[in-house]
């Protein structure tokens, strides 16, 4: 269960969030594999051996890795901008986002007795 009760603390990163091992390399890796797959598909479409023209596979893979890194960067910029807008809105309207008390499951769930 999250220890955060303040809505403003949810949108601030104080260096406590560490990305997983695959998080920074997932998009470039997936797009690079898709680029190599596209080169294989092009060769298959032209009825050539699928691994002929290996330079094409390397080039498509490199373009895919670059595109994946670009998409990752744009996604991070979009999410940072969205968080900044939400943080600013919460700062301007603190009455709409009160700090709530934490409740345990025992306080939320009603007592239940099975009928047999």
Automatic annotation (TrEMBL):
User: An example of a Gene Ontology BP annotation on this entry?
Assistant: mitochondrial electron transport, NADH to ubiquinone
**Keywords, comma-separated and alphabetical:** Electron transport, Membrane, Mitochondrion, Mitochondrion inner membrane, Respiratory chain, Transmembrane, Transmembrane helix, Transport
Q: Membrane topology for this entry?
A: Single-pass membrane protein
UniProt keyword Cytoplasm present = no
Q: Where in the cell is it found?
A: Mitochondrion inner membrane
Species the sequence originates in: Drosophila sechellia
**Name of protein:** NADH dehydrogenase [ubiquinone] 1 subunit C2
User: PANTHER family under this entry?
Assistant: NADH DEHYDROGENASE [UBIQUINONE] 1 SUBUNIT C2-RELATED, NADH-UBIQUINONE OXIDOREDUCTASE SUBUNIT B14.5B
What family classification does the UniProt entry report for this protein? Belongs to the complex I NDUFC2 subunit family.
Pfam family example for this protein? Answer: NDUF_C2
Membrane spanning segments where? Answer: 25-46
The record's function comment reads: Accessory subunit of the mitochondrial membrane respiratory chain NADH dehydrogenase (Complex I), that is believed not to be involved in catalysis. Complex I functions in the transfer of electrons from NADH to the respiratory chain. The immediate electron acceptor for the enzyme is believed to be ubiquinone.
Q: Would you tell me the Gene Ontology cellular component terms? A: mitochondrial inner membrane; respiratory chain complex I
Record's superkingdom?
Answer: Eukaryota
